[in-house]
């Protein structure tokens, strides 16, 4: 049965996040030939980003521009999106499982008294049903889940459901909606940017992670250089965070972030079960560790037994050389 | 201050997961307080010590969850409530949980509710924000610092690695992120005292709910384990050669460069 499905888009630093395009692809499956309607909140002209959502497969896009939506607040965005939902009466809603998605969607689901399937890594249409696959126990197991009643509402994990190919011959209307926003109860005083490259771990295609073997905060420098050469971002094991080598926001594992990049390079990480839970579903895993018995080698596609301070700089040079020759 | 903590009993993070008869096998598994909820318990105790009042820890689950509640009491919480659904509910989802919690909080005078930002088992992260919406309270997720002055609340929260500074007012619901504090271990006197602290047990009937009111909106149709990862290639030879081989493999075989 075809459905009307809303996709709540999300921008970062003035451009749409890739997970928004992935959400359109997921919504396309959920809609089963119905309409996929993009929703974008913000301040100022959002039509260009709306157009981009159309190129990636949205049938049309509703933009909601309001000074109170300049930065995300759960109250502001909650009210804006809720008003769009009231107008459109969708049968499905899809959003990225990002910091904003995690904050906004449960509130909306609660207001709508609907179910919500969080953090899906796969969506398939089976008969008349839509079945979502999602990791549980941090990826130690998976479950298939479906909505039994009402709205098909889900968030999708970045990097798992491929976006449709961008097609700039696609056309769709971009319409503006005015909303009433009142009583924002949380005021954002300041944002301290700590992630220098602006790439979030959950969305990164390449992650260079350091463990206790990195030995100090300075020890992360070669890892940062390698990340730079590969266009990736740096993560860490709990061991490295607990030892104070880096911020907890970099932690990957059962507590911390669960990541699924295309390439994960573990440097000086032994591979405790809690860490493996957070990264073992990465597409390609490289382990660099002095200890040939380290658990990390059991999940690695490629392993180098050696000192990371010897291996990583050589790896940087080799990749640079490959790029020059390419 | 009336401080409430939402707590969930979860598998220990050390546990390997296996599936039998379509469900996660739990025989012999060790259980703990969900690690993110442990930050909530610790912060609640600190807030009480600073501002006075009482910390009540609430969980929904089976009889066995009493053990985790006693642990929270041993850490320093004052009271505990177990909403026992063992006899009434076969299945539930986040809608179910929040419907029950909403009924529980209906007649409570609340200043702050703390919970984990996510549970390490089902990992939906929905219960906190869902409950805040039902109770019409502001909600701040993934907090790493909190200061309360009168009714003004200043919070730092983790937003994908950045720090957002937020001001709000009581009553508020917050969900805790790693980095907020270092949860204490229960002390021996704490454990002794915990045995005498009040632990109330309720059933959904006591909250004027029946099974139909809390019927889940979603269902799990299958649980399975990810395919075992085959052990990969450990490269050999001089480091320089290994590095060359690795880059070549990443480019031609894995196709990620």
UniProtKB/TrEMBL annotation, chain B:
SUPFAM superfamilies: Adenine nucleotide alpha hydrolases-like. GO terms for biological process: carboxylic acid catabolic process. Pfam families: ETF (PF01012). GO terms for cellular component: cytosol. Keywords: Electron transport, Transport. Heterodimer of an alpha and a beta subunit. The electron transfer flavoprotein serves as a specific electron acceptor for other dehydrogenases. It transfers the electrons to the main respiratory chain via ETF-ubiquinone oxidoreductase (ETF dehydrogenase). Belongs to the ETF beta-subunit/FixA family. This is Electron transfer flavoprotein subunit beta. It comes from Halobacillus faecis.
């Amino acid at each position: 049965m075809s459905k009307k499905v809303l996709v709540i888009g999300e921008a970062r630093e003035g451009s749409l996040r890739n997970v928004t395009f992935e959400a359109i692809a997921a919504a396309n499956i959920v809609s089963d030939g119905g309409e996929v309607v993009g929703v974008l909140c913000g301040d100022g002209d959002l039509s260009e980003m709306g157009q981009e959502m159309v190129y990636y497969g949205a049938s049309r896009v509703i933009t909601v521009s309001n000074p109170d939506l300049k930065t995300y607040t759960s109250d502001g965005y909650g009210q804006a999106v809720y008003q769009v939902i009231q107008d459109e009466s969708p049968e499905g809603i899809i959003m990225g499982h990002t910091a904003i998605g995690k904050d906004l969607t449960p509130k909306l689901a609660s207001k709508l008294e609907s179910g919500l399937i969080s953090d899906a890594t796969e969506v398939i249409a089976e008969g008349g049903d839509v079945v979502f696959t999602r990791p549980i126990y941090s990826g130690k197991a998976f479950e298939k889940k479906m909505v039994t009643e009402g709205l098909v509402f889900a968030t999708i994990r970045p990097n798992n459901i491929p976006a449709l190919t961008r097609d700039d011959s696609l056309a769709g209307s971009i319409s503006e909606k005015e909303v009433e926003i009142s009583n924002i109860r949380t005021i954002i005083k300041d944002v301290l940017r700590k992630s220098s490259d602006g790439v979030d771990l959950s969305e990164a295609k390449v992650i260079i992670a350091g463990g206790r073997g990195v030995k100090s905060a300075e020890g992360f420098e070669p890892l940062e250089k390698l990340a730079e050469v590969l266009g990736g971002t740096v993560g860490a094991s709990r061991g490295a965070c607990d030892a104070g080598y880096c911020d907890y926001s970099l932690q990957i594992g059962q507590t911390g972030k669960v990541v699924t990049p295309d390439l994960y390079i573990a440097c000086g990480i032994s591979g405790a079960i809690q860490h493996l839970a957070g990264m073992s579903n990465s597409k390609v895993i490289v382990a660099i560790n002095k200890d040939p018995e380290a658990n990390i080698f059991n999940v690695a596609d490629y392993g180098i037994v050696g000192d990371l301070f010897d291996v990583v700089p050589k790896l940087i040079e080799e990749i640079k050389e490959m790029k020059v020759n390419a | 201050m009336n401080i409430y903590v939402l707590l969930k009993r979860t598998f220990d993070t050390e546990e390997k997961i296996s599936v039998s008869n379509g469900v996660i096998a739990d025989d012999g598994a060790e259980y703990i307080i969900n690690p993110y909820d442990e930050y909530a318990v610790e912060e609640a105790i600190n807030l009480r010590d600073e501002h006075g009042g009482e910390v009540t820890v609430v969980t929904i689950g089976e009889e066995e969850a009493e053990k985790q509640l006693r642990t929270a009491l041993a850490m320093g919480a004052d009271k505990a409530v177990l909403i026992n659904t063992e006899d009434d509910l076969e299945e539930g989802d986040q809608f179910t949980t929040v419907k029950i919690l909403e009924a529980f909080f209906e007649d409570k005078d609340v200043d702050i509710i703390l919970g984990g930002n996510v549970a390490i088992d089902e990992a939906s992260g929905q219960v906190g924000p869902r409950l805040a919406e039902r109770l019409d309270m502001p909600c701040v997720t993934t907090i790493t610092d909190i200061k309360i002055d009168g009714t003004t609340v200043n919070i730092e929260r983790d937003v994908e690695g950045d720090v957002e500074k937020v001001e709000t007012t009581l009553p508020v619901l917050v969900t805790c992120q790693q980095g907020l504090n270092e949860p204490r271990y229960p002390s021996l006197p704490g454990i002794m005292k915990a045995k005498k602290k009040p632990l109330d047990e309720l059933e959904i009937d006591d909250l004027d709910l029946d099974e139909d009111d809390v019927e889940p909106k979603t269902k799990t149709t299958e649980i399975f384990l990810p395919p075992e990862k085959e052990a990969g290639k450990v490269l050999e030879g001089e480091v320089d050669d290994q590095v060359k081989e690795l880059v070549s493999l990443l480019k031609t075989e894995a196709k990620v460069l």
